[in-house]
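Hello Y.,

Per our agreement to keep a running log of every chain we model this quarter, I'm adding this entry. I've kept the format consistent with earlier entries: sequence first, then predicted structure.
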Amino acid sequence: MGLMNIMLFHSTYGLRPAVHAAADRLRAAGHEVRVPDIFAGHTFETVEEGLAFQQETGKEELLKRAVLAAAPYSDSGLVYAGFSLGASVAQTLALGDAKARGLLLFHGTSDIAPSASVDELPVQLHVADPDPYETHDWLNSWYLQMRQTGADVEIYRYPGAGHVFTDAELPDFDQASAELAWKVAIGFLATL
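Predicted structure for the entry above:
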């Protein structure tokens, strides 16, 4: 309990001011936070631009950058966190890190390797309802698979919110949902 060492990954929009604001919010709650830039300085105004950059760079390269960013700190037991694409990256790293302390996901999930196994890893997901990228069928399946890995999973759904509803600079922004998500997430971190 107390101070967590958090690795916070950005969304497909890149490392924008909202990610730094999120990191500051977590620091204000007493945590140590790192925000690696897996897009190497590129930011985007639209999802389409971000997706094009992701495809050009390649999933393996982006994951490699994330692993290299986390590796120097993983021995201390990281909490992996992220937004949308960053949540997907955080999930992949957390499921592969036996020392992970927790997984905090905003707006996104990822496929789960059949061999993935964790020891009661605390996982919390905050997602819009409905979300075009995280459908109900997908989330039901994801939840069951995560439970099978041994994770302790909580899902919080936000009716009427847009996909990346925590970013004040995006059209998806929903202030009430964002504030509630942060309150719950900070409470979650305090239990780890």
